[in-house]
Amino acid sequence: MSEFKSDIEIAQESELLPIQSIADRIGLSINDIDYFGKYKAKITYEKIRDIQKNKDGKIILVTSINPTAAGEGKSTVTVGLGDALSRLDKKTIIALREPSLGPTMGMKGGATGGGYAQVLPMEDINLHFTGDLHAITTANNALSALIDNHLHQGNQLNIDQRRIVWKRAVDLNDRALREIIVGLGGHAQGVPRQDGFDITVASEIMAVLCLSTDLSDLKHRISRMVIAYTINKQPVTVKDLGVEGAITLLLKDALKPNLVQTIEHTPAIVHGGPFANIAHGCNSVMATRTAAKLADYVVTEAGFGADLGAEKFLHIKSRSAGFQPEAVVIVATIRAIKMHGGLSKDELNHENIFALEKGLGNLVKHIDTVTQFGLPYVVAINRFSSDTDAEISVFEKWCEQNNIPVSLTEVWAKGGAGAIDLAERVLREIDNNQNTFSYLYDLHTSLDEKMKIIVQKVYGGKDVEFSVKALKQIQEFEEFGWGALPVCMAKTQYSLSDDPQKLGRPSNFTIHVRELKPKLGAGFIVALTGDMMTMPGLPKQPAAYQMNVDENGMAIGLF
């Protein structure tokens, strides 16, 4: 029975079609893709330019409630919904992020879906894939090397080595690299200074690649990235250093979107992967736009809950790219809602109507956020075997009483067949033409006011408290002319607040902003809140402990 098989067992037993067969389904010839083996390919720049005259397909955004240790299955529902639309004879492409090795080998797991709603080849995508993240890591660290070489060779730009904001990167959770000293060992080894590492998916180069529309735009965005400040406290950019061409060269292939398939052979474009709690949490603009030019419907996701990924998809990605979703799917589980109602993970397998009803407040807030943007939505309940009939009945009755469109999905066990009702409901919401999309803040609103709007309207909080450093940075950034940029809030994914222990729907809370980081290449200002860090650490029992490979090269223990 399928319920006794792991995700990797299901993936390894699935039959993949040659990638050209998948390409044929969306009008891509042998000359339109670059092959990476039999089952992976990149779409060429020539084809992407050629299809710009095509009519845009409709974009469906998948988001969720605040994630918990119980798991929501947002990627699984995204894949299942795409497969369901294909079963309904809708020309559909799924657009997902690339997984990071940090969470893959740490605690969160991969990002290719699960059960019979997966994108394949799952092992490749969750490991090295087509090398995009390695290219981003290399580009990031090449820039670090060029900065340190500039210091060593005389520092013509008068960079203050105490105010270099560009960090090195590695695509792993490695807390020991958060703060380091480089340049030790004497004059020949460079200039000693304090440095550190971010995880690759938090690098601005990842954000830049994901928001670029072509190679020229990528080069322009790279050129304006702030890397340091002078001794006179003026910003220094990559353009000042004169290396934007070299950094772009290292990324020329990584910018091409990757084409793969689901278990049911629905085309999927998997490209880019900025973290949603640190960065903007969406796959690349090129992936989403290319999918929209090749299909009638695009199912895409934004990381974590609507307070993070969806807010940033709408305020940052869609604003930059000039498109918007037609409808939103909000994924929730009975298990996760019960955790937001106060249960521990060990208690979730037992029926508890009280905890279910108490935890519904978290879902209500995310619904409220989506409706504030003027977008129609459907709540997707991702069913688990531990959900009781009574719990499902209570939830569905609550949705009916509150006029909330809802669909019970079983995509893990049934694939696309388990999301037919969800697909039909989403199509009805789109056809009802009730989309009145608008942004929650104007770009010319001050930086501090933008943060306050997000906290109050999206998180449901009371106010924002700024550190002395953050207040000074707000003033400096406004003086530098950066005040009209959107804000990217770096916040815990587990809570609407900046305290990961406050589950459910906390109220009357204050968000604490300790520091701002300019990301001019990406086109936003990052606000670090609470204890959020740009280099995660590994848990006590990392997922890597369970991983292995057999003598034939088959992965073991990869979920």
| Average pLDDT for all residues | 95
Q: What's the CATH C level of the largest domain? A: Alpha Beta
Q: Kindly name the structural category.
A: alpha/beta
How would you describe the shape?
globular
Number of H/I helices: 20
* Total number of distinct structural domains: 3
User: How is the main sheet built?
Assistant: 12 strands, mixed
Number of strands: 25
Low-confidence stretches are none
Give the CATH H-level superfamily of the largest domain: P-loop containing nucleotide triphosphate hydrolases
Taking Cα atoms only, what radius of gyration do you get, to the nearest Å? 23 Å
CATH fold call of the largest domain: Rossmann fold
Measured by DSSP, the beta-strand proportion falls in 15-25%
Q: Can you tell me the CATH architecture of the largest domain?
A: 3-Layer(aba) Sandwich
Termini separation: 18 Å
Amount of helix = 25-40%
